[in-house]
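It is worth pausing here to work through a concrete case rather than discussing structure prediction in the abstract. The textbook approach is simple: state the sequence, then state the predicted structure, then interpret. We follow exactly that order.
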Amino acid sequence: MVEERFENEKLGEEFEPLIVAYCCNWCSYAGADLAGTSRFEYPTNIRIVRIMCTGRVDPTLVLEALRMGADGVLIAGCHPGDCHYQKGNFMMEKRFDYLKEALKNAGIEPKRVRLEWVSASEGGKWAALIREMTEEIKQLGPNPLRRTKAPKRTDATISAFKSQRLRWVVGRSQIKVEIEEEKYRQTVDLIMQDEIERHMITGALKEKGSLTAEELAQMTGLQPSKIVQHLIALRRDGKISEAGEKNNQYLYQLA
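Step two, the predicted structure:
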């Protein structure tokens, strides 16, 4: 589907975005169904994925959809207070803040992803929402990731969100504990940045084999001082090991 659209655009046809929508089974999916049965007109650019609750939408699902060629992603669920699982939509709302930061880190415009609430009775709202989002994505243009290989930072961001460390700290925001919000956000942002940079390093080692700190700095664009800090942490965690020397510098490889 992505390749076919790309070929059509090369032939001069108007850009038609592909939007993936993760819809809550109980409300937004029913709202989309109502829009269809009520014959409300809206673009056919949407591809719906039915889920039980927006609280189950992992950030990696959104990032992977964009990496695989979607031009936009919509997450649609029950209105706050109407969740069939009590607080699933609140969990998604909190997680969405970190998702927007992840999009920036991955080099993707945050406007390509939206979080909206649509009830089962709001078929008209669903149709209007799809029309509005389709026009917005047309203004942004095609997702650059579907024309070229995803940048290393994009791959690193997706891998970072799969890491236990980042998943644990983001998950703390959904537990009823006393947390000073500003300090907590700063901590999450710092961990997110660290994890992305460390996955850029391990990605380079996976691609090229053994590398020195200087070569890693050149490949990743990170400062040599940051490379050294991450190498110490990765070696401590058993993810990399030394592999001899080159030009009087240590070589590092994946453990």
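Step three, interpretation. The first strand starts at residue 19 and ends at 24. The domain at 2-146 is CATH 3.40.50 (Rossmann fold).
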